[in-house]
Design a protein that fits this description.
By secondary structure, this protein is of the alpha/beta class. Helix content is 32%, strand content 20%. The strands form five sheets. The chain has a seven-stranded mixed beta sheet with strand order 5-4-3-1-2-6-7, with helices on both faces. Helix 1 links the parallel strand 1 and strand 2. The chain is globular and about 75 Å long. The protein starts with 8 loop residues before the first strand and ends with a helix.
């Protein structure tokens, strides 16, 4: 099994301790690590394995048995403590358990023959990270060791007091740059890491038996990273429970919430008021001192809720795989909403005019434009795909830059706000530009909506939408309307479509969306959009192309068959 330094090793596995242990071993021996999401489709995994030509793969027994298509592989190491039937695999392919590999390495005679670790150089390749992407097939982002170090240095500088007293809970995909850099940083600073999953996080999680305790309750983490979709879910669950309280309890909660919110805006804490939110805080173990949100914009309502009820700052960050997850993070003392903070010490941020979308650096009151990130954290491009590297450039001083495709607004204090995305902008038939991301972000806080995808094309003058409704809220509404049947029947009922559309219009009016931005037709989806369905990425970003293909018949119906 001896590998020479700079030989790639692929890892296709769920988030667990063995993933990080394997990654650290690869870094130590200068083996570039090829990361593949556990929820990537079979074709995407096969594509990544074929492109990187890895001969060694680390995976789990479950993924090995269900999804794997063999390519250049010679050795597969699976991390579970179970036996695999190797007869089902090609003769030249060797299957090993991780325990067997560890035992092999522990034998004295093998230790003498083992290749001594060769320390990587800053410019050596560390990771080829295949992104699940919101469009097309996966792209391998090439990350060198100095990119990783720069990105993590910038991120860690915004987390005060990071050290051995901290406990971090890992549950996001480790093949995502946010989780991978967060965990490597924890290892660097001596923090404990406990492993979980989105289905076992809290006592109320779907895979926790009633009466049993969730992972947060047991681990009591102090630090946690989260994507907005998970925070939105926590917010809606708590607020629905508040609605079920008695009038007195509900009034007390609202008074306490409003009072603390006002004090937070002034920069004060409310120790007595915090007692009121003890039960809510206990949902994540009770010890959270800081949360980091990334992957997508966090709605102001959800951010305020997390600040108030979990009694901790929410560091909202902005970065991409192409910038090692680093770009900006809000300061701990910054309780403003809708912003992603100032540039980290590892990079620079500048805005470039985007005339077609109507954004320029001369805009008032604040300059706006496409966000460019430059610095040592900017990665080296896409693996074996030089033709895709047009978003990278090197300036006259030799600094690498990446053109993000996101549109930002720079505030006078140096903090950035994400206001649009170039790919999300659609020109309607009448000439108006609609930002689909803006519409979705504005309507996500509607109680009837768990997730929403806005859609428009230039042949028509209106926006339509696809909605994953909140099952509890919609079922209760259906009962009031006298509509019975299965969950699918409720979602397909024209009356319920009309009710959700009414709720959308009410929400849009309260946040002052333009008339042409408000969806006029809706299709309710009884199935949630998860990474497993292929309709969202592992960071829960919408995959617009896949969603369009999935709802093609509905699009034709809602646009009158045109």
């Amino acid at each position: 099994m001896t590998l020479q330094p700079k030989s790639t090793i692929a890892i296709f596995c769920e988030t667990r301790a063995e993933w990080m242990i394997s990654a650290q071993a690869c870094f130590r021996h200068n083996f570039p690590l090829v990361t593949l999401y556990a929820t990537l489709g079979e074709d995407a995994v096969a594509y990544g394995l074929n492109e990187c030509e890895a001969t060694h793969l680390i995976t789990s027994a479950e993924l090995l048995e269900t999804k794997l298509k063999i390519s250049h592989l010679k050795h597969i190491i699976y991390v579970d403590k179970k036996n695999i039937n190797t007869s089902a695999y090609p003769e030249g392919l060797q299957i090993h358990s991780m325990r067997a590999v560890q035992e092999l390495g522990a034998k004295p005679e093998n230790c003498e023959l083992a290749v001594q670790p060769q320390r990587p150089q800053p410019a050596d390749l560390a990771v080829i990270m295949y992104t699940s992407g919101s469009t097309g097939r996966p792209k391998g982002v090439t990350i060198i060791h100095s990119n990783l170090i720069a990105g993590m240095t910038g991120q860690c500088e915004r987390i005060p007091g990071l050290g051995p007293k901290d406990t971090y809970i890992g549950y996001l995909p480790l093949a995502h740059v946010l989780e991978m850099t967060a965990e490597i940083s924890c290892v660097t600073y001596g923090c404990r890491i406990g492993y979980s999953s989105p289905q076992t996080l809290s006592d109320q999680s779907t895979k926790i038996k009633k009466g049993s305790k969730g992972d947060c309750t047991v681990l009591k983490p102090t630090l946690m990273a989260a994507v907005p979709a998970i925070m939105d879910r926590i917010y809606k669950n708590v607020m629905s429970k508040v609605q079920e309280m008695s009038y007195v309890q509900r009034t007390l909660f609202k008074l306490g919430y409003d009072y603390k919110l006002e004090q937070i805006k002034r920069g004060y804490d409310t120790p007595l008021c915090n007692m009121l939110f003890k039960k809510v805080k206990a949902l994540l173990g009770g010890n959270i001192r800081m949360m980091l949100s990334g992957g997508a914009p966090l709605s102001p309502n959800t951010q305020r809720f997390m600040n108030v009820c979990f009694c901790c700052p929410i560091g909202q960050g902005y970065g991409l795989t192409e910038t090692c997850g680093a770009g900006t993070i809000t300061e701990v003392a910054d309780y403003s909403t809708g912003r992603v903070g100032a540039p980290l010490i590892c990079c620079e941020v500048k805005l470039r005019d985007w005339a077609e979308g109507g954004y320029t650096t001369q805009d008032k009151p604040h300059p706006r434009g496409e966000i460019l990130i430059g610095g040592p954290n900017v990665t080296m491009g896409y693996y074996k795909s030089e033709h895709l590297n047009e978003d990278y450039f090197v300036d006259e001083k030799g600094q690498r830059w990446f053109c993000t495709g996101d549109v930002g607004e720079m505030h006078p204090d140096g903090c950035l706000q994400i206001v649009d995305r170039k790919k999300d902008l659609v020109k309607l038939q009448a000439g108006e530009y609609v930002s689909l991301g803006k519409v979705e972000s504005a309507l996500k806080n509607c109680p009837l909506i768990d997730n929403i995808c806005a859609y428009a094309n230039s042949d028509h003058d209106y926006v339509i939408s696809f909605v994953v409704p909140n099952q509890k809220q919609l079922t209760a509404l259906a009962s009031k309307k006298g509509i019975e049947g299965s969950w699918e029947d409720i979602c397909n009922h024209p009356t319920m479509e009309a009710e959700v559309l009414k709720a959308i219009k009410d929400a849009a009016a309260s946040i002052k969306l333009q008339r042409f931005e408000i969806p006029v037709k809706v299709r309710l989806s009884p199935e949630p959009w998860t990474p497993e369905t292929g309709l969202v990425t592992d960071a829960f970003k919408l995959k617009r192309k896949e969603l369009k293909d999935h709802y093609l018949n509905d699009i034709e119906r809602m646009y009158g068959g045109k």
